[in-house]
Design a protein that fits this description.
2 copies of one chain form a homodimer.
Chain A lengths: L1 E5 L3 H12 L3 E6 L5 H10 L3 E5 H7 L2 E4 L6 H8 L1 H4 L3 E4 L4 E2 L6 E2 L7 H8 L4 E5 L5 H4 L11 E4 L3 H13 L6 E5 L4 H18 L5 E5 L1
Parallel strand pairs in A: 1-2, 1-4, 2-3, 4-5, 5-8, 9-10
Antiparallel strand pairs in A: 6-7, 8-9
Amino acid sequence: MRIGMLGTGIVGQTIGSRLVQLGHEVMMGSRAEANPTAITWARKEGRHASFGTFANAAAFGEIVFNCTLGSASLEALQQAGAHNLANKILIDTANPLDYSTPIWTLTVCNTDSLGEQIQRTFPDARVVKTLNTMNCNVMVDPGKLSQRTDVFVSGDDIEAKATVISILRDWFGWQSVIDLGDISTSRGVEMFVVLWQDLRTWSSSHRFNIRVVS
Amino acid sequence: MRIGMLGTGIVGQTIGSRLVQLGHEVMMGSRAEANPTAITWARKEGRHASFGTFANAAAFGEIVFNCTLGSASLEALQQAGAHNLANKILIDTANPLDYSTPIWTLTVCNTDSLGEQIQRTFPDARVVKTLNTMNCNVMVDPGKLSQRTDVFVSGDDIEAKATVISILRDWFGWQSVIDLGDISTSRGVEMFVVLWQDLRTWSSSHRFNIRVVS
């Protein structure tokens, strides 16, 4: 499958590399056409990997991942272009974190969320929020943890969510996917990230996740 | 031990009853001196249970639990009186939820938290935020779940936290208590409650909790 990967950070690289390993064609998009990080990544990953602008990557992908910084996601998606996102599944992994404060805060929360903002701004995209509640190494390899843990999906488009649940299971190995409901449930998973940061400090590691136990 | 229980709701009743079962003396405090719920509860629980105003209960307790509605906690604690809380461990279990909106929101979050507000307003109280991330039946009986799960503590007073960790372990049966850090980490656990609500809808039950898996 052709995947558009928006964002050249560690999340985009990690998911992108996993998708290339699985045999998919991945174009990594960034603000500049020739982003050095994207070029290096594409060279390393070989013939199934390429790079371009946000618009190039969004146009290329049958499915598009948003792995940009949450605080810059709306602008990046504007550059990607609504027409390049229309009718496509847009997997939003971003957290709207403001890193400028001593204790990181969210740029949107409580009465709104980045997931909702993206869906409102791009009503023809089929937005599914997922994977934002763990480190990227866990995202693509949940089996490395000592127990089964959970990943969440939020979105208004039932079919898009079903496809994303299959992707999470079949491509990344998630055995347990919790469908929280419509895109407004992005609020909870984005606000969870504040606790996630405290848990990272507590555990001195990025390699953990939560499991819901009943 | 003498415990002041602020709040007559299901959380105050459940924790209060557990403490009475354990042999402690519990006074349930409320706005009115003769709150019908508190009277009924105290009659049911017998000679170790009593009731009074917030100020009566806070004065009575060697340790004080805040189990009021989060949106009303500061006012309740003002009625309890700073002098009645001074130098005492104040276990804050409340969540600052606004139930008036279709999707519940928090009255404070992101750049502040109820836990921090309480500690700032009552600097002589030894505030420990805990138990706000699960239903009250799980709070006092975590062993009912199918696996060990986690409870969090946040607070500036190291000795107070150590005492609360012992209380959680010895009185309620929590085998795993995660010390998140100072009182500012109340933000994360309070903001988690939005995801908790979505999980409650998903699971159609209050009886669950999370476990951190590495």
